[in-house]
């Protein structure tokens, strides 16, 4: 029984490894409006430059949710979710704001939000004020370090 279970698990691991698709060495395209190319993985890594949507890059290696890429003049790390294997053209660029994209991700659009504001007694002023706040990266990092909190990936 143990031997057959071991064989099944080994077979599943081999099939899983073969079916996993690596991007290493492949050409991919930047799939977001612009992306900061970082010196290493992680939110607080230094920026080496910026690439725009549709830029063609080669994946050098993968590390968790990050990929190391090389363009014609820049090498560094970007979030894997920022790249796609499908060619991206400039005609795909949306005029949607970052706020509209965030709302769409939650199932909202401006029309739905306006309907809620008109038909309900909900006060969105506090939410709008919170969404308008920004914190500089260096202040955020200092806050995390002083509080002995994890800096993330």
What does this protein look like?
- The protein has 153 residues and is an alpha+beta fold.
- It has two domains: 71 residues, SH3 Domains (SH3 type barrels, Roll), CATH 2.30.30.40; 49 residues, no CATH class.
- The protein contains five helices and seven strands, in the order H-E-E-E-E-E-E-E-H-H-H-H.
- A five-stranded antiparallel beta sheet has the order 6-5-4-1-7, with no helix packed on it.
- The two termini are 41 Å apart.
- 12% of the residues are buried.
- About 3% of the residues have low confidence.
Give the topology, please:
Elements: H1 2-19, E1 27-30, E2 34-38, E3 47-52, E4 56-63, E5 66-70, E6 75-79, E7 83-84, H2 98-105, H3 110-119, H4 125-132, H5 137-146
Antiparallel strand pairs: 1-4, 1-7, 2-3, 4-5, 5-6
Q: Tell the overall outline.
A: extended
Low-confidence stretches: 16-20
Strand order of the largest sheet: 6-5-4-1-7
Cα-based radius of gyration, to the nearest Å: 21 Å
CATH class of the largest domain: Mainly Beta
Encode the helix/strand succession as letters. Answer: HEEEEEEEHHHH
Largest sheet: 5 strands, antiparallel
CATH topology of the largest domain: SH3 type barrels
Domains, number: 2
Strand content: 15-25%
Assembly state here? single chain
Q: Architecture of the largest domain in CATH?
A: Roll
CATH superfamily of the largest domain: SH3 Domains
Query: How many helices does DSSP assign?
Result: 5
Q: Please state the structural category.
A: alpha+beta
Number of strands: 7
Quick check: average pLDDT? Answer: 80
Please bin the fraction of helical residues. Answer: 25-40%
Distance between the termini: 41 Å
């Amino acid at each position: 029984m143990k031997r057959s279970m071991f064989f099944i698990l080994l077979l599943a691991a081999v099939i899983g490894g073969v079916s996993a698709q690596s991007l290493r060495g492949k050409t991919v395209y930047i799939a977001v409006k612009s992306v900061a190319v970082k010196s290493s993985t992680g939110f607080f890594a230094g920026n080496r430059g910026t690439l725009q949507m549709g830029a063609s890059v080669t994946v050098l290696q993968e590390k968790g949710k990050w990929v190391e890429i090389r363009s014609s003049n820049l090498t560094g790390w970007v979030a894997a979710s920022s790249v796609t294997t499908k060619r991206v053209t400039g005609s795909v660029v949306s005029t949607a704001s970052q706020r509209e994209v965030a709302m769409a991700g939650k199932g909202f659009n401006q029309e739905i939000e306006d309907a809620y504001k008109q038909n309900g007694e909900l006060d969105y002023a506090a939410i709008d004020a919170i969404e308008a706040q920004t914190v500089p990266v260096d202040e955020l990092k200092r806050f995390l370090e002083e509080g002995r909190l994890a800096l993330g990936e």
